[in-house]
Amino acid sequence: MISWERSINIKSHQELEIMREAGRINAEALNAVVALVRPGVTTGELNEAFEAVQRQYGVVSPFKNYPGPYPFPASICTSVNEELVHGIPGARKLVEGDIVSIDVGTIYEGFVGDMSVTVGVGAVSPSTERLIKVTKHALEIAISKMVPGNTLGDVGYAVQTYVEDQGFHITRTYTGHGVGRKMHEGPQVPNYGKPGRGMRLREGMTIALEPMVLVGTPDTIVKGDQWTVASADGSLTAHFEHTVAITADGPKILTLLNGN
Ligand code: MG
Questions:
Q1: Is the CATH number of domain 13-253 3.90.230.10?
Q2: Ligand 1 centroid distance, CA of 97 (Å)
Q3: How many angstroms separate the CA atoms of 238 and 157, rounded?
């Protein structure tokens, strides 16, 4: 999204525990949304399901009214097929064979959990299934690099080489990001890079890792609604995201259903 709080904020153990709960609630609400994905459901209904879980917990989404060309009008992003990120939920009915990236955020006790998954609607083709698998694995690779002393270039290089070796592409325009009291803190975390380059990761940093993978080319456009980012060539795209803490004991995923 558009505006960035650039400072890098190191979190205390206590703050990480709050973020873990923000992430757990976020994952639970996302799970409720994913359970509804089927042909005929509208993306607006997915947004409503997410908000219903948020109301149970008395929490809200940092996406709602996020500043941009105009305030983001929903609590989740739903990006279908060629849409990569920032799609706006609404009247669109999902169709068998579609894929949808569902990107969700939760603010709990002042801290943000941010995550996304891409899921198939009914049965999808084997090549589509492979795109989803590769993107999910790219996230796992990024997470494995979240250790003190690694550089942002190490992370980006690992993701980029894996994705490109699989014959797919990585956007250069949109990146992962630090996350904490704000959804978007520093640093920006590209899914491409060179080993040893860029800032070094430190204990207590919390990063939203989000590989965004395109089938045809790395190029993107913004659609007429001024929010939705799509592949320039109309080819399929996928997106997975977790919020991860860098600790002395290795990477800790903060957006897990069981709270890890
Ligand atoms: Mg994010």
A1: yes
A2: 25
A3: 19
pLDDT tens across 150-178, in order? 999 999 999 999 999 999 999 999 999 99
- Residue that has been written with the tokens 């990024």 in this structure: 142
Strand partners, 85: 229
Q: Which two tokens stand for residue 181?
A: 């009291």
Q: How far is the CA of 91 from the centre of ligand 1 (A)?
A: 24
- The domain segmentation of the chain, as residue ranges, is 13-253
Distance 220 CA to ligand 1 centre (A): 17
**Phi, psi (degrees; rounded to nearest 5) at 110:** 85, 0
- Total-model pTM: 0.96
CA atoms of 219 and 165, how far apart (whole Å):
18
Cα separation, 191 vs 209, in Å, equals 9
Nearest by Cα to 215 from 184, 156, 252, 170 = 170
10-21 pLDDT tens trace:
999 999 999 999
Task: Say if residues 227 and 87 touch (Cβ distance below 8 Å).
Answer: yes
Q: How deeply is 87 buried, as exposed, middle or buried, from its count of CB atoms within 10 A (0-12, 13-18, 19+)?
A: buried
CA distance 212 to 168: 10
